[in-house]
Design a protein that fits this description.
- The complex is a heterodimer of chains A (310) and B (316).
- By secondary structure, chain A is mainly α.
- Chain A has helices at 12-18, 21-48, 52-57, 72-111, 118-130, 134-147, 150-160, 171-196, 199-207, 212-223, 225-241, 244-249, 260-263, 276-296, 298-308, and strands spanning 269-270, 273-274.
- Chain A has a two-stranded antiparallel sheet with strand order 1-2.
- In chain A, helix 2 packs across helix 14 (276-296) and helix 8 runs antiparallel to helix 11 (225-241).
- Chain B is 71% helix and 0% strand.
- The chains are: A mainly alpha (310), B mainly alpha (316).
- At the A-B interface, helix 2, helix 4, helix 5, helix 6 and helix 8 of A face helix 2, helix 4, helix 5, helix 6 and helix 8 of B.
Chain lengths: 310, 316
């Protein structure tokens, strides 16, 4: 049959080699690990779509069948999460934008122009990437609550702005905190990119008498567009997913300014235990923005990770 | 400011000109001219990170516990002594160490295995890599919910599989003997894809003619990897290990969301969870600050050698 088709003769030898035992083993393992990485997500989604009875009766990874299918868990979870979504976005978007801009400038100042002591300063940024946040939580709580209660100070202003609520002012300290602690990693990401650019680019402009500002605006900014994308996606994911700072500054899931990550562990809990239909619905909804970003920009995400590792 | 050298005709030329030239030279130096770029981010970062660490350290030397101001009269190491003498602290430090070592080594091993698995002639390699890395895009809070369900003793996936094989199901998270292992397993699930990406990048930088040469010499694929390829991945291993250890030190959120709220996690207490509980639940701010300082020292113990290594390599 294969002889009669119009396709040029297939290299039978290499085809047989390709279907060798080792190949089969290799693909079997690949598929097994696909299961390993995807089953927790799959069972979560399936559970989110089942009625309580179906959750108790059916296999956890089996799709909901017939009467067992329901969207009410998702609706309930979305209801509980909707204001938190707005809070998360109001926190993550401004924080990411400011973060990326400041980090690009810092990386430029520390890489494209050379001066003595630069490496020492840069090391301070680098150590900042790895500092566990627990080491600053007590000062953070004291600073924003007792010493400089910016959130409370801004409350009347925020209440007067259309589309914003008074409690949204509590997100301002959170945004500043995220920016400050995001600067080290974003700067390092940008720096690894700038370091890879040809040195002659800046040198030539310098000889032509271009000022530092001009070099940044005319040369560096335009060519670092792809890196802006990478860092933005990376940092948005980080801030959206972050829990510890929200926990420290917003404290309670009952606070109207609570972001998604703070609310999630409190959803679907009752005296009789956890309602997994609701909990999985909420987890899936909470993860949706970053999953969409990740799937759409998988290549950039992987690139960002590779750069982070130096 | 008071004496303006230019107004004095008697002054010798060199002195003031030298001073002004020096100033002008300094103001024109790349250090000053680039400072508007790195200055603000640096200040913000320095105050937040290093100011925060310093303030935390200062509080850890007091006995500040809630309300009003920390008083710096009782300035001593009392909190550190209390911590080291405390059984719960030692247990948490031990768990931290186990978590760090087990999680990092298993993730590295699995990551290397996955990278080698995907490195040669796999179709849809990019798509598969994306799927393996997907858990990393999720927040700790979300993955904790997923694994809460995976480990659920009534109808979770693991329970169903184990009972399907005819064994008795295990209360993974409720049993102190298994809880830490269960936590490590879930964290490996979330982050081994990261090690894989780093190793894949490392593998790609190794020229393929090394495989050819080994094949000509009659070496098996396994042999080629073990003797020739893997030894060249040292740098990938080091950088992946450091980042993984940092993830492990940040596992607080995962544990908090997994075993819940402030109550001591069942056999899985680590320094971070202990610190937050002591500081934020019991208001023992100074004690929490002392634990946090020791956690920071642990982190620095991991990264300082790494940074020094990078510095020596000239790749900083």
């Amino acid at each position: 049959m294969s002889q009669s088709t119009s396709r040029p003769n297939i290299d039978v030898v290499s085809l047989v080699e390709d279907v060798s035992l080792r190949r089969v083993g290799q693909y079997t393992l690949v598929v097994l690990f696909l299961g390993f990485f995807l089953v927790p997500l799959q069972t979560g989604i399936m559970t989110a779509l089942k009625t309580n009875e179906a959750v108790a009766r059916s296999l956890p990874f089996a799709p909901p069948a017939g009467q067992g299918f329901t969207l009410s868990n998702l609706e309930f979870a979305f209801d509980r999460l909707s204001t938190a979504f707005i809070n998360s976005l109001l926190m993550a978007i401004p924080a990411t934008i400011i973060n990326v801009l400041l980090a690009s400038m810092a990386a430029f100042g520390l890489t494209m122009v050379r001066w003595r002591g630069q490496l020492a300063l840069l090391s301070l940024f680098l150590v900042g990437v790895f500092v566990p946040y627990q080491a600053v939580l007590v000062p953070l709580a004291r600073f924003w609550n007792n010493i400089f209660p910016l959130g409370r100070m801004l409350e009347p202003t925020f209440a007067a702005v259309p589309l914003l609520q008074g409690h949204h002012s509590q997100l301002v300290p959170l945004v500043i905190t995220h920016v400050a602690y995001g600067i080290p990693i974003c700067t390092i990401l940008f720096r690894s990119y700038y370091k890879g650019l040809p040195n002659s680019l800046v040198e030539a402009a310098k000889i032509d008498g271009a000022s530092i500002t001009k070099i940044y605006r005319r040369i560096v900014l335009p060519i670092s567009k792809p890196m802006f994308g990478v860092v933005f996606i990376y940092q948005f994911t980080q801030i959206y997913n972050e829990f510890l700072f929200s926990f420290t500054l917003i404290t309670s899931a009952n606070n109207p300014a609570a972001p998604v990550t703070l609310i999630l562990p409190a959803i679907g809990t009752s005296t009789s235990g956890i309602d997994f239909g609701i909990r999985m619905s909420a987890a899936f909804l909470a993860a949706l923005p970053t999953i969409i970003l990740y799937v759409a920009f998988a290549e950039q995400f992987a690139k960002g990770l590779r750069t982070e590792s130096g | 400011m008071a004496t303006q050298p230019t107004n004095d005709p008697e002054m010798p030329d060199e002195e003031p000109v030298g001073w002004r030239t020096k100033l002008r030279y300094f103001l024109n130096s790349d250090f000053v001219r680039s400072s508007p770029y790195w200055g603000i981010p640096f200040l913000l970062m320095a105050v937040a990170v290093y100011g925060g660490i310093g303030y935390n350290l200062a509080i850890s030397f007091t006995d500040y516990a809630g309300l009003s101001q920390p008083t710096f009269e009782s300035f001593d190491l009392e909190m550190y002594r209390t911590a080291v003498g405390n059984e719960a602290f030692r247990r948490a430090a031990f768990n931290n160490f186990v978590l760090l070592v087990a999680f990092t080594s298993v993730s590295l091993g699995l990551g290397l295995f996955l990278a080698v698995l995907l490195d040669h002639g796999i179709r849809f390699k990019e798509k598969i890599q994306t799927a393996y890395l997907l858990p990393m895009a999720l927040s700790f809070v979300v993955t904790a919910q997923l694994w809460l369900w995976m480990y659920n003793q009534e109808n979770g996936v693991l329970t169903v599989i184990i009972e399907g094989l005819g064994f008795e199901s295990i209360n993974w998270l409720g049993n102190p003997d298994f809880a830490l292992a269960a936590v490590i397993f879930a964290l490996v699930w979330q982050f081994s894809g990261y090690a894989m990406v780093v190793y894949l990048a490392g593998l790609q930088s190794i020229p393929s003619d090394q495989f050819e040469a080994a094949r000509v010499d009659g070496a098996s694929t396994f042999r080629t990897y073990v003797s020739i390829i893997i030894p060249q991945l040292k740098e990938s291993s080091v950088s992946a290990a450091v980042v993984l250890m940092v993830f492990a030190l940040k596992a607080f959120t995962f544990l908090y969301a997994l075993v819940g709220q402030y109550r001591p996690p069942n056999g899985t207490d680590i320094l971070a969870t202990l610190m937050v509980r002591q500081a934020f639940k019991f208001g023992k701010w100074a004690y929490g600050a002392a634990i946090a300082t020791m956690l920071l020292l642990l982190a620095l113990g991991v990264i300082a050698p790494y940074l020094y290594y990078q510095y020596r390599q000239g790749s900083l």
